[in-house]
User: Fold this.
Amino acid sequence: MNELQCGTSPIVGFRFSLHPMTDRFVEVIKGAMKETDTSAVWMHTDDVSTVIRGKQAHVFNVAKAITLHAAKTGVHVALNGTFSVGCPGDSAGDVYLDMPDELLNQDETKQYVSSQFALYPMNNPDYMSVIYREVDRAKERGVFNESMHYASGIHGDIHDVFDFYEEAFENARSDAHRHLVMTVSMSINSPSHEGSVKR
Ligand SMILES: Cc1ncc(C[n+]2csc(CCO)c2C)c(N)n1
Assistant:
């Protein structure tokens, strides 16, 4: 296969970093990963970030679970990450596409999150209408917070926010334009949320 060719694999990837605002950052990061069932995704952690790859549903399920575990410590946590699909590069982890669909992390604990996201529908000349459509979806779902340069503000309960992100990521790509990148930046348990309406 031509390694430079994009758009042949349905594998979804998420590369992210957690930044807990505490001296106890090591146990918050490592604890969140350990308490999450990551067996349905390929995962690798280094000194800067962690990458998970696999079926879309599992990648979003694991991303949310790790974030929720970190949030439940009560510590102010920042998460930054990039979702990508349609550019397999290497095929390590493709075996995870055979995993059963059953989601392995089911914690329903409520948790307010404030976030910003940006969609990059690669090689799609009509990318702005894709972006507007997904921002409209956020408004319909009740998770839209505000417009801003280079991103859109999304907030609410972590389950509603991650549901929206997965739906937007699913809908912002097509057979004609399979390569999609989405960046997400989240702030949780921040003292700056004080006074925010939806908590
Ligand atoms: C999700 C995530 N993965 C890796 C790092 C990088 N990192 C920074 S401190 C630390 C623990 C001590 O090794 C690690 C792994 C991160 N911040 N967030």
The pocket of VIB is lined by residues 16-19, 25-26, 29-30, 45, 47-50 (CB under 6 Å).
